[in-house]
Structures are given as structure tokens and as C-alpha cells.
Amino acid sequence: MIIFPAIDIKDNKCVRLLQGDFDKVNVYGNDPSLMAKKWEDKGAKFLHMVSLNGARGEGNVNDESIKKLLSTVNIPVQMGGGIRSKERVKELLDLGVNRVILGSVAIKDKELLKDLISQYKEKIVVSVDAKNGKVAAQGWEEVSDVNSLDFCKELEEMGVKTIVYTDISKDGMMIGPNFDIYEKLSKETNLDIIASGGVTSIEDVKKLKAMDLYGVIIGKSLYENKIDLKEVLDLC
């Protein structure tokens, strides 16, 4: 199981939000590339990066930080946050992003998603953000009536290989992940599942690993020193 340290960028700073609330921001550094280097030096093999401004439709204001981060580390980086066009996908892959994570556009424009999967295959990852079992979009600010498990099965049929599944109600709350949904996803799909949201302890990681998940994203727990990255990497 791959451990993905999370780097969320807002206004070119490294931050964490509470439950995706843009009014509840903790800043952990003014240079995201230094944080990325820190996780690489501690042994991380892959990073998960999100442009929060992009997720809110505020444009590519973090691009300079993204470029600097990509040139600072030697490990692969997957990135999401407001990626809604073929042009932006190509731009990020050309910059050196290893995999591009699509969110809202995967719900709202299935034809574009199919087109991108056809062209870029496993370079395309879909982020499924859910609240009470329903898919959310637009930086978590819109909740649809689409069942998240059904949506994941549909993505698999369309050719998606990897998903990042986040239970918004758990994110940043330090109360543990939604184990039930990951167990269902693991049993009912053949997707590579990356768990995200609420991972608080090494015990959480052990339980997710026992489900044979592909990966887990750890954010606030690393920044608050609740989980030691080296210890969790040794486990996995």
C-alpha cells in the first residue's frame, strides 16, 4: 500500500482545511516545495497535491508553487484541484505531474472523461468526494443525489483504474476514516482505491492495509505529528 503525504496549496501556501471548509484554514508553511522535500527526505515514494484555489474555480494562481515543487522533488506527484479541460491536463502532465486527478468534471462531463482516459489511460485518476454516501463537487460545496458507490462502479466501466475516495465528514476531523465504504469498494469493484480523509493513527493505516487497498493519503495527522511518516512507511 502506497502512503501519499498530502500537500494542499492555497494562495501559494501549504495549508489544511477542516472538512473542506475554506474558512477553516491552518497554514503549515509559506513554501510548499520545502514541505514536499521534507516528506521525500523522510522516505515518501509518492506525493498527493491539491490546488485548493483551482478546486474553487479561482484559476491557476498556484502554478509557480506547483512548478517549484515539481522541480524540487524526484518522486512522482499526483495532482488535483479544478482540472476541467484537456488543455489543463496536458499542461500539468507536460510540467511533470505524474497523474492528474479529476473531480467535478468527471461527474459533469462524462464524454470528456472518456476522451481523457482514452488518451492518457492510467495517468487519469478520479477523485470521488462523498458526504452521507452522495457525491459532492465544486470543492465540496455542492452535494448531488448520486450514490457514491454506484458512481465508482460506473467509473470502472468507463475505464478508470484509480480513484481517490474521500468521506468529507471525516476529513481533517482526526476521528478515523470511513472503513465501511472502503470495505465495500474493495469487495464490489476492481478499482485501485486510495483512501483519503480522517486517517489519524497507525492503527487506521493497519486496518486499511488489511483491506488490501492501493494507497492511503495522510494529511493533517502528519502535520500535527499524530503519525510518524517513517513508521507508517516501514509498516507498508
Query: How far apart are the first and last residues' alpha carbons, in Å?
Result: 6 Å
CATH architecture: Alpha-Beta Barrel
**CATH level 3 topology:** TIM Barrel
CATH superfamily: Aldolase class I
Count the beta strands. 12
Shape: globular
Spatially, the strands of the biggest sheet line up as 1-4-5-6-7-10-11-12
User: Any low-confidence stretches, pLDDT <50, length ≥5?
Assistant: none
CATH class designation: Alpha Beta
Arithmetic mean pLDDT: 92
Q: What's the helical proportion of residues?
A: 25-40%
Rg measurement, Å: 16 Å
Q: Beta-strand percentage?
A: 25-35%
What are the SSEs and their pairings?
Elements: E1 2-10, E2 13-18, E3 21-29, H1 32-41, E4 47-51, H2 52-55, H3 63-72, E5 77-80, H4 86-95, E6 99-102, H5 104-108, H6 110-120, E7 124-131, E8 134-137, E9 142-147, H7 148-158, E10 162-167, H8 179-188, E11 192-196, H9 202-210, E12 215-218, H10 220-223, H11 229-235
Parallel strand pairs: 1-4, 1-12, 4-5, 5-6, 6-7, 7-10, 10-11, 11-12
Antiparallel strand pairs: 1-2, 2-3, 7-8, 8-9
Helix pairs in contact: 1-3
Task: Describe the structure in your own words.
Strands 1-4-5-6-7-10-11-12 form an eight-stranded parallel β-barrel, surrounded by seven helices. The termini are close together. The longest helix is centred in the middle third of the chain and has 11 residues, at 110-120. The protein has eleven helices and twelve strands. Helix 8 (179-188) links the parallel strand 10 (162-167) and strand 11. 44% of the residues are buried. The model has no long low-confidence stretch (mean pLDDT 92). The protein has helices at 32-41, 52-55, 63-72, 86-95, 104-108, 110-120, 148-158, 179-188, 202-210, 220-223, 229-235; strands spanning 2-10, 13-18, 21-29, 47-51, 77-80, 99-102, 124-131, 134-137, 142-147, 162-167, 192-196, 215-218. It is of the alpha/beta class and 236 residues long. 39% of the residues lie in helices and 30% in strands. The chain has a single domain (2-235), classed as TIM Barrel (Alpha-Beta Barrel). Helix 1 (32-41) packs parallel to helix 3.
